[in-house]
Design goal:
about 300 residues; mainly alpha; three-stranded antiparallel beta sheet; about 60% helix; about 10% strand
Length: about 300
């Protein structure tokens, strides 16, 4: 089969297989762009923690989000082995979680007042639960609805309760900020882009180039901003719950050392560069210490 320089192709008998003309292709792409823009602007809401407009599908309510989090949590616990809930590690993690959870509304109210927004207090309806999972991973997570887990591999990196609280506060912040719902909305936009590319007659290479541009120009920066937001809210949670926020700096230095160093540039990563993250945390430290002085009852004379 030979290629037709005009954009179509000819078989053995010389019959041309029609393709989309340049004008029609642009009309198709414009139509999908209008739909994507409509979806974007009609599903924006104000986040009380940051004061920013964020993209969350209006058809996804908090109860549905909680149900998805519970389903994922049950699947994880069915595949991975939680440690004995009466073990010292499990008890320590639950105690840290309880202190952090107790300060979620206080921190939300303070950040909402700072940004001139109204607090939503979604966490009031969370069904909190926390487990410790046996694994070498130095990691933790908090799913929508408050289902949490800490991996045993995090303990030797955290080294103390203050650093553990910083990590757990970060993970809780992802749930409070509804980052999972935001990622689902971003995935829908990505699907719109993929369908637009296929419907407009783009070849595979052109579609890949379009999706790569969307990834580097929108999805990855958005993911990094989620991490930065969770760092700030998590640090304030830890401080308000009477943990030492200054432990965040050596913690992330140990995390970087434990990972063996970054293998990809920040530009191509979903997470900020460790050096950037530490700089951001250092800049937030005066604010975190203020939160500790204001909201930690133990810190008061």
């Amino acid at each position: 089969m030979s290629n037709d320089p005009a954009g179509g192709s000819r078989g053995r008998g010389g019959t041309r297989r029609p393709g989309l003309s340049g004008n029609v292709r642009w009309v198709v792409l414009l139509g999908f762009a209008v739909y994507a823009a409509f979806y974007w602007f009609s599903n924006r809401s104000e986040d009380p923690y940051t004061g920013q407009k964020v993209l969350i599908d209006s058809s996804l309510d908090v109860e549905q989000e909680k149900a998805l989090g519970l389903q994922a949590y049950q699947e994880i616990l069915a595949q991975e082995r939680p440690v004995d809930p009466n073990s010292q590690a499990a008890q320590q993690v639950r105690a840290i979680a309880q202190r952090l959870i107790a300060k979620t509304e206080v921190v939300e109210d303070a950040l909402a007042a700072e940004h001139g927004t109204q607090p939503r207090h979604y966490a009031r309806d969370f069904d909190w639960d926390v487990n410790v999972i046996q694994s070498d991973q130095a990691n933790a997570f908090c799913l929508p609805g408050g289902k949490m887990a800490v991996y045993t591999g995090l303990f030797p990196v955290a080294q103390n309760a203050d650093a553990m609280a910083v990590v757990m506060g970060h993970e809780i912040a992802h749930a409070l900020l509804r980052h999972g719902a935001q990622r689902m909305a971003q995935q829908k936009l990505t699907q719109i882009g993929q369908i637009a590319g296929a419907a407009s007659g783009m070849d595979v290479q052109q579609q890949q180039m379009m999706m790569a541009a969307m990834g580097y120009g929108y999805l990855l920066p958005y993911a990094r901003s989620h991490e930065t937001q969770a760092d700030e809210v998590g640090l304030m949670l830890a401080a308000a719950a009477c943990f030492d926020p200054q432990q965040a700096i050596p913690l992330w230095q140990r995390m970087e050392a434990a990972s063996g160093g970054r293998t990809t540039s920040e530009f191509a990563s979903t997470h900020p560069d460790p050096g950037t993250r530490i700089q951001n945390l250092q800049a937030l430290m005066p604010k975190a210490m203020e939160y500790r002085a204001r909201y930690c009852e133990q810190a008061r004379p």
